[in-house]
Design goal:
13 helices, 11 strands, Protein kinase domain-containing protein, Phosphorylase Kinase, domain 1, five-stranded antiparallel β-sheet, about 30% helix, 3 domains, kinase, single chain, two-stranded antiparallel sheet
Length: about 400
């Protein structure tokens, strides 16, 4: 398989040294062990997930490899990037992006309680962006929880990870059966009554559990430590995870909308992005977008032009990397062009002949010419269009340094 073809780390110190500068165990789960590795050949730090294939059928192994293939095709700033997969005699090795900040669940334990309201809103916004992207491409995660949300080194950015229960809607289940963690599971998932569309609404329930955990510092259904007891409670009653009454009203409304027992009544990710709970995030996002779009903004800034999300498949998103062109450069006096280069700091002017030449009179040196913006193709989505400013990290993550 293309992409990741590095052999499995050997137990021999000599051989291991040839492949990795460092190899450190950072996690252990039901599926396997995760290591932080530094590639000797490239110096790149990656996370290597070793899955023990003993006891797995050929079909199950093929399903796991298919999962990694699907994830490798996804590229989004809030989804952990997969590099590739390699099948060995007794293991599967999945190479993926390393997130040095650890998991959200570990961070909540470190804080020792709930996160600040603004940090919770910031993380919720980013998590919803990831979920919205997956659902727009007909993919359900099926195991959203704080342990599967990873943080950057400065804790300003989060990414959704661990797609062991991933399902691509409309195709064969990548990993079938009852998947997920009971305390975060939607009732219909435990009952196995969900439809194909229901998988995405089940993600919304799990997302609500994760947001509630950030708001309270408590695991959903924490009063039921036994997973089987929790599962029974979830399916045998009309109750939902306990939501403290002292939370802000917008936060209560947000999580309660995710906890609708009827999946059809739950909002989509795009709806939640427009909720009252995230109003302050949208407001700050809008103000930063205005700052980026101002005439003083550099048209070739990496922050403005970088493409944040795509999928390497026939359903690839429209290229949004087109740069603005200065108006009527061909018709400008040379002195005017020198003035622009000197005073507006535009280093790369593209020449495009205007259909109807316009004669421009020389202007004073302190007069600025506003850059003409090109129209950008729109992206179709299931309900809410993904914002075109997702390509700007500073805009999409408005609270880059929230307080703990």
């Amino acid at each position: 398989m293309d992409g990741y073809d590095t052999a499995s780390p050997s137990k021999s110190p000599t051989q291991s040294h040839k492949r990795w500068h460092e190899k450190e165990k950072i996690g252990q789960g039901a599926q396997g062990t995760v290591y932080r590795c530094v590639e000797a050949a490239t110096g790149r730090t990656v996370a290597i997930k070793e899955i023990n294939t003993k006891g797995l059928s050929d079909h199950e192994i093929e399903a796991l490899m298919s999962e990694a293939t699907v994830m490798k095709s996804l590229q989004h700033k809030h989804i952990v990037q997969y590099h590739g997969v390699k099948q060995k005699k007794r293991t599967l090795e999945i190479s993926m992006e390393f997130m040095p900040g650890g998991s959200l669940s570990a961070y909540i334990r470190t804080v020792g309680g709930s996160l600040t309201l603004e940090r919770t809103k910031n993380y919720t916004w980013q998590l919803l962006r990831a979920v919205q992207f997956l659902h727009e491409h007909r993919i359900a995660h099926r195991d959203i929880k704080s342990a599967n949300v990873l943080l950057s080194e400065d804790q300003s950015q989060i990414k959704l990870a661990d797609f062991g229960a991933l399902k691509e809607i409309g195709s064969i289940s990548v990993v079938g059966g009852l998947k997920g963690t009971p305390h975060w599971m939607a009732p219909e998932v435990i009952k196995e009554q969900q439809t194909s569309e229901g998988w995405m609404k089940a993600d919304i329930w799990s997302l609500g559990c994760t947001v509630l955990e950030m708001l309270t510092g408590r695991t959903p259904w924490q009063e039921y430590s036994n997973p089987l007891t929790a599962m029974y409670k979830i399916v045998s009653s009309d109750s939902t995870p306990q939501v403290p009454e002292d939370l802000p009203s917008e936060a209560i409304a947000f999580v309660q909308s995710c906890f609708q027992r009827d999946p059809a009544k739950r909002p989509e990710a795009g709806d939640l992005l427009h909720s009252a709970f995230l109003k302050s995030v949208r407001k700050l996002k809008k103000s930063r977008r205005t700052a980026v779009d101002s005439p003083k903004s550099h048209p070739t800034s990496p922050e403005v032009d970088s493409d944040a999300s795509s999928i390497n498949s026939p359903r690839s998103m429209t290229d949004l990397s087109a740069k603005p062109v200065h108006p009527h450069v061909d018709d400008m006096p040379k002195s005017r062009i020198r003035s622009i280069l000197t005073h507006e700091n535009i280093g790369d002017i593209k020449h495009r002949k205007a259909k109807k030449p316009i004669k421009l009179e020389p202007l004073p040196l302190n007069t600025h010419v506003t850059n003409q913006e090109k129209s950008t193709p729109k992206i179709k989505s299931s309900k809410h269009q993904t914002s075109l400013d997702d390509s700007n990290p500073a805009v999409d993550d408005p609270l880059t340094s929230p307080s703990t």
